[in-house]
Design a protein that fits this description.
2 helices; mainly beta; seven-stranded parallel sheet; 182 residues
């Protein structure tokens, strides 16, 4: 199994937690565990899986915060953790490497503000979904530094203040309304 590069167990009736022994799959590039009944916290033992490019744990019942080791994977391009019960703030995203292209954290229980450094740290991101969380405060103007963004989904949070005028200068598509992931 140590030569396994793709693991897709999505769309089943799997339950329990994600076993920490999964980190023995050191050649794994694609991990799909979405649409199951997985629960518990996401373990913080991702560093051994240096080849991971895609992680999709969406549509489960996972809880706790986003492990910083998950975000520091050098080849990670796609991180989809939407539709879980993840909580905490977005501070662990500070460790995300600039290679990340898709980050979907929608429909969780994440709270706090959007960090201002997100526009610098995630400069190559094309899809950023933070919809359906408990985020608050102003939408930071630093999001305008996301020059490759195509989808920016911040719907159904508790943001206040004005819409940053610089959003109109972005080349990509900005979505702040309903229905993109419905």
């Amino acid at each position: 199994m140590s030569q396994l590069t793709d693991l897709d167990l999505s769309g089943n009736l799997l339950n329990g937690s994600i076993p920490s022994s999964i980190n023995r799959l050191i050649r794994l590039k694609f991990l799909f565990l979405s649409n199951n009944h997985l629960s518990g916290k996401i373990h913080n033992h991702w560093k051994a899986m240096q080849h991971l490019e895609v992680i999709d744990l969406s549509r489960n019942n996972l809880s706790g915060g986003i492990p910083s080791s998950m975000c520091s994977l050098p080849y990670l391009e796609w991180l989809q953790l939407s539709n879980n019960n993840l909580s905490g703030d977005l501070l662990s995203l500070k460790y995300c490497l600039s290679r990340l292209s898709v980050l979907d954290l929608g429909e969780n229980r994440l709270s706090g503000t959007i960090p201002k450094w997100i526009g610098e740290r995630l400069s190559t991101i094309t899809v950023l979904s933070l919809r359906g969380n408990m985020l608050f405060g102003k939408i930071p103007e630093q999001l305008c530094r996301l020059t490759y963004i195509h989808v920016l989904d911040l719907a159904h949070n508790n943001f206040s203040g004005s819409i940053p005028t610089c959003l109109g200068s972005l080349v990509g598509y900005i979505y702040v309304g309903y229905g993109i992931y419905d």
